[in-house]
Amino acid sequence: MIDLYEVAGIKGVFLSNKVVENQVKTYITYNKGRDWHLLQAPATDLQGNKVYCEEPYCSLHLHLHVSENPYASGNIVSKDTAPGVIIASGVVGPELSSVNVSIFITSDAGNTWREVFQEEYSVFFLNQGGSLVAIRHTPLPIRHIWLSFDEGRNWDKYSFTSSPLYVDGVLGEPGEDILIMTIFGHFSHRSEWQLLKIDFRPIFEKRCTSEDYVTWQLHNEGEVCIMGMKRIFQKLRANVRCVKARDQYISQMSDSCTCTEADFECDYGFERQVDGSCISAFWFVPSASTRDCITGDSFFNTTGYRKALSNNCTEGSLLKYSPRQQKCPSQAPRGLQLFTSEGTFVATLGRNVTFLVFLEEGLSLMTSMTVDFGDGTAISYVNISSIDDGVKHIYNKVGIYQVSATASNHLGIDKVFLYLHVSCHLEQVQLSAPLVVIKDKAVNFTTTLRPSSVGTVTYFWWFDNKSEPVVTLDGAITFTFSREGSHIVTVQALAGNIVHQDQIRVAVYDYFRSHPLVFSSNLDEMNPGVSEWREDIGRVVKTCIVQVGHKDNALFPGLPTTAEVFIVPERRSRDRGMNEEWAHLDQVLFQQIIQKLLVNITPLVDGSDSGHSGTAVIMLVSVVLMGLAVFVIYKFKRYSIAGAVHTLWTRPGELFDPIK
């Protein structure tokens, strides 16, 4: 429905514009919307010519807009003191239109209509609805008004001004029994407003008496029982020019009718069919209304119908439409449903989760319920009705839990499952991998989460600046780099609706050399475990490497204190193969790094402990000997040395780069 209008003076009668197959059509109902039908077009037009209009392809359609302007009549008007009289603008045809609009009047509440004007007019009630006044709705100045004493069948033309007036509005005097109307407007677009008061009292001859009234019975296409009542109204006779007194409002007589099928509408969960019957909708389970019914008691079971609201019919022979009393059946539980109050399958660690349980069929008062939360905790209830507000539970561990609900009575059991994902908020993800790797050789990348357990995590990996990521459910992946150079590897961890990211830079070469360094444990004893201490030690190591002409390095905190020096050959040396010159320079460079570390690291160790100092010297000397062994192995091969040195300081499970 796009417009709805309630007819004044007659309860239950409504007019509505509906969209039917992309066409706007006007319908009327006499029983508060239970039944709707199209408006019958007038038999003849204003000139008396026959109107050929056959439903449903052609009918009368009305504009149902009520005026918000108190000085205009609007597109449709009706009045309590003029029962059955409706005045509206509209068209005859297949649908509602704003072209060729005419004014139509009905005197029998919409059963039959007459065309009274072929242009738009504003129509007002006068003399408590006993007379009608029409003023042409036009932007041009006018001098005349029309007056009708027979509900619009005939109109008399009256001049209300000697000079044409541009009408802006019409105002009735207070009190419906006063026959005075004020028209205001202006004689020209530059003139001031003019107020013209019209006194209709001289037109009326006398006060109305009972002999001036006739009876009129409301009907719907001949059916006089409407909303369970026969209603008879009193109306003025046609062309009687008498003034209705204040206490002579239209009286109404009513008689009850025996209930028929027309007095009932479809009950909740039932739908009207083409043949007029009410059939259960596909989504409605009629037996669900008896789940609170106790065995041995009785209940009123719907037949699919209910008496329309405000219907006053009396019980007759059609009791088949009334609810019937039945014994409460004994039913096994069926249609058990379990879901969270949020309607989702995720929950947050440490917060209350509310589970709702619903049983479609079964005796809820006689049915026990057990809810198993899947974490070793379960709770039972004597009957389902005691948990209408839901069951609350808090999970203390991250994971996926199988939650179940079991309903049982002496007739059977029903069970339902729900899988709940419990997670906590992800705070950080750290990516770990070697800083220098060999081309075309698989490299392992691993991640560390904080906190370590957050539930189901999805990982997105980007390699070699590719636009599409590799998606995994594992925090580790293996990748092979196919070209040399510096590569940025990025990982994103998605937990719930939270995403964190980390990335590292990896250097890829065809070949490189590495030398491990092992420091005295006395150095570890001086380690307070703070980042400032690691920065100090790292600064010394970096200074040593820089002093021998190599600037690139990366440092990592950890215990035991270790380091690894990577030496990468230049491309021209790799093209010629490993040679004795490269091995010699490798050894010279490595000895320079050892000397610098020996000089700078030793003062950081407590000199009073000669044992530890001696151990440090021994460890460093062992590194020198290892370097000499490398020199012997490659004494017949010549290499040149590139200026790329990487230092790696590691501790298992921790990854940090304090110096950039």
Automatic annotation (TrEMBL):
- What SUPFAM superfamilies does this protein's entry cite? Oligoxyloglucan reducing end-specific cellobiohydrolase (SSF110296), PKD domain (SSF49299)
Keywords, A to Z, come to: Glycoprotein, Membrane, Repeat, Transmembrane, Transmembrane helix
What GO biological process terms are annotated to this protein in UniProt? post-Golgi vesicle-mediated transport
What do the Gene Ontology cellular component annotations say?
Answer: Golgi apparatus; membrane
Hey, which family's this protein in? Belongs to the VPS10-related sortilin family. SORCS subfamily.
Q: Which PANTHER family match?
A: SORTILIN RELATED, VPS10 DOMAIN-CONTAINING RECEPTOR SORCS1
What name does UniProt use for this protein? Answer: Sortilin related VPS10 domain containing receptor 1
Gene source species: Xiphophorus couchianus
